[in-house]
Amino acid sequence: MGFSGTIDLPDVRQRLQYDLVRQRYLSAAATDRDLELRPDLLLSDPEHVLLRLVSLRDDPAGHPAVEDRVPALVRHGMQALVHDYRTGPLRRVLTCCALLAVGLLPRRAALGICDLVLTSRPRPAWVRRLARALPGALRP
Q1: Quick one: which of 48, 79, 80 has its CA closest to 65?
Q2: pLDDT at position 49, please?
Q3: Residues 101-126: pLDDT tens digits?
Q4: What pLDDT does 7 receive?
Q5: Average pLDDT over residues 68-95
Q6: What is the C-alpha to C-alpha distance for residues 43 and 48, in angstroms, rounded to an integer?
Q7: Contact assessment for residue 52 and residue 65, using Cβ atoms and an 8 Å cutoff
Q8: What is the DSSP letter of 66?
Q9: CA 16 – CA 38 distance, rounded (Å)
Q10: Range of the domain at 128
């Protein structure tokens, strides 16, 4: 069951599978070099955590990580956002809102919000205005 016209569950699951394969290769490379890799490495990427939340909320029975729970994923996503310095302030605010929405709102309303974060299409006018106002508001 898809939740919008621009992104759907098969796309989300494909992106999750790509991330899981990438982690397996990184783990193998780290082991070959006698390095230690954090087992929760993917949970330090806010977009990956958001994808896991979307997958879990949209189809819990088909979600690839059976140990995932909504509150824990929201917490990991927020922690990842705090430590993610490569993402701009607007993207961080949008991702924070999407994480909270997917974790707290009813499923149908929450998943529609994710289109703002997970798709690369022109943003609505209110988001563009927020993006222009945000840098000035964040300066000390």
Answers
A1: 48
A2: 93
A3: 888 888 777 766 776 666 655 666 76
A4: 60
A5: 88
A6: 7
A7: yes
A8: T
A9: 18
A10: 9-134
The single-letter DSSP state of residue 98 is H
| 3, part of any domain | no
- Cα–Cα distance for residue pair 97/78, rounded to 1 Å: 10
C-alpha distance from residue 39 to each of 14, 27, 42 (Å)? 21, 9, 8
* Residue 73 within a domain: yes
The pair of structure tokens assigned to 24 is 């397996």
Number of domains comprising the chain: 1
pLDDT confidence of residue 71: 94
Which tokens in the block code for residue 17?
A: 């599978």
List of long-range contacts for 85-89, beta carbons under 8 Å, 24+ apart: 87/46, 89/134, 89/135, 89/138
Is residue 140 domain-resident? no
Cα 9 to Cα 64, 79, 114: the distances in Å are: 12, 25, 12
Helix axes 70-83, 89-104, angle to 10 degrees: 170
Domain assignment of residue 84, yes or no: yes
